[in-house]
Amino acid sequence: MSHNKSEISEQTVLMIAVRDNQDREAFGALFDHFAPRLKGFIMRTGCSAPQAEEIVQDVMLTVWRKASMFDPHRAQVSAWIYQIARNRHIDIVRKESRPVPEELAEDPGAEPDASQILAVEQEAGKLKAALSSLRPEQRDMIEKAYLGELTHQEISDQTGLPLGTIKSRIRLGLERLRHELKGLRE
Questions:
Q1: Separation between Cα atoms, residue 183 and residue 179, nearest integer Å
Q2: What positions does the domain RNA polymerase sigma factor 70 region 4 type occupy (predicted)?
Q3: Which element (helix H / strand E) includes 112?
Q4: Nearest alpha carbon to residue 82 among 44, 111, 47, 105
Q5: Is CATH 1.10.10.10 the classification given to domain 115-185?
Q6: Tens digits of per-residue pLDDT, 125-174?
Q7: In the chain, where are the structural domains located?
Q8: What counts of helices (H) and strands (E) characterise the chain?
Q9: What pTM, to 2 d.p., does this model score?
Q10: In the predicted structure, residue 1 carries a pLDDT above the cut 50
Q11: Residue 141: partners with Cβ closer than 8 Å, 6 or more residues away
Q12: What is the CATH number of domain 5-112?
């Protein structure tokens, strides 16, 4: 995969902002870029989605905590983050005393291939499009419940809406989303 310089420098710039200024916005952008890629990379080694998500959270937390150790002259951001992910995953595998999957033992060239990245990005794009097709009040509830990770009670406290209304909006919204996304899975 040929790396275009601007992509690398953008992530490097973000990582340096995290390292030097504890820049939360830059970290958010790094997280959005790497989380889906890391999750795919980890799941290809036979991890379940929930376990992969846990590892990704852990890896990104480590990236935040160890940002001071990042040296752009020694490694690209992606290589550095994938190394953390591999080490973390190997630790977990050893703890569970399973054999280390081959994909982890070898260096995967640090980046998942373009087709996987594209698939994730297309899926995210379709999800955004499907979300935008919902009525605003349904979309708002779904985003609060799933993207903001609020409980129904917290949404009720925040919006002043009764629980029943919130639940039915989420249910209706999810049914529409499911319908919109049916084509995505086929």
A1: 8
A2: 126-177
A3: none
A4: 111
A5: yes
A6: 677 777 778 888 877 877 776 666 667 788 888 888 888 888 888 778 77
A7: 5-112, 115-185
A8: 9, 0
A9: 0.50
A10: no
A11: 155, 166, 169, 170, 173
A12: 1.10.1740.10
Query: With contact defined as beta carbons under 8 Å apart, do 68 and 98 qualify?
Result: no
pLDDT for res 118: 61
Residues 6+ apart with CB under 8 A from 15: 26, 30, 67, 70, 72, 77, 80
Tens-place pLDDT, residues 68-106: 999 888 888 888 998 898 888 878 777 776 665 655 555
Tokens of 138: 């349904």
CA dihedral 159, 164, 165, 168 (to 10 degrees): 130
Report the pLDDT averaged over residues 42-68.
88
Chain CA centroid to CA 61, Å: 12
The pLDDT of residue 67 is: 93
Return the half-sphere exposure (C-beta side, CA atoms, 13 A cut-off) of residue 144: 21
3-state secondary structure 39-82: HHHHHCCCCCHHHHHHHHHHHHHHHHHCHHHCCCCCCCHHHHHH
CA 105 to chain centre: 23
Cβ-proximal residues to 147 (8 Å cutoff; 6+ apart), any chain: none
Q: Please report which helix (H) or strand (E) contains residue 146, including its range.
A: none
In 3D, which of 11, 30, 33 has the Cα closest to residue 121?
Answer: 33
